[in-house]
Amino acid sequence: MSVETRDWITLGDALARAPKIAVADDDWLNRDLLETYLTQAGCEVRTFPDGAAAWVGIQEDPPDIALLDVRMPNMDGITLCGNIKQNPQLGFIPVIVVTAYDEEDEKLRAIEAGADDFIGKQPSFCKITGLLGVFQKTDDGFRQGVDIAGGD
User: Fold this and answer.
1) Phi and psi at residue 76, to the nearest 5°
2) Minimal CB count within 10 Å: which of 26, 37, 71, 96?
3) What is the pLDDT of residues 103-151, one digit of tens each?
């Protein structure tokens, strides 16, 4: 009997299903980088080029976690975060704000909008997968009692 061995474990291996991640960033390079990291970590990834497109996509197919760039056209990440957190069917989704800036007022606005955490642009693979693992673990118990489709 042959046994497959690997030196790594993905989030998809550790969880009942692959986590669904929404990535919104107007910079194609940042979107591609995050998509590559997350796909390699065993996640199902949907990317959006701006906040308005992400808002539509998140409402249509709610992710397990949203990674939002702060400065995007059509709707910035802080406004998008607020929309997610104020929506009764989506408010439980952890939102991680991705920013290249270390401006305290920007972080304060994101916190006021409901952001759960922050990461810098081009974060390490370990930081991303670590954050996603933490949010998945803490979110699973809460999510079991939530009907995101709005049915009875």
Assistant:
1) -75, 165
2) 71
3) 777 888 888 999 998 877 766 556 666 666 655 554 554 444 333 334 4
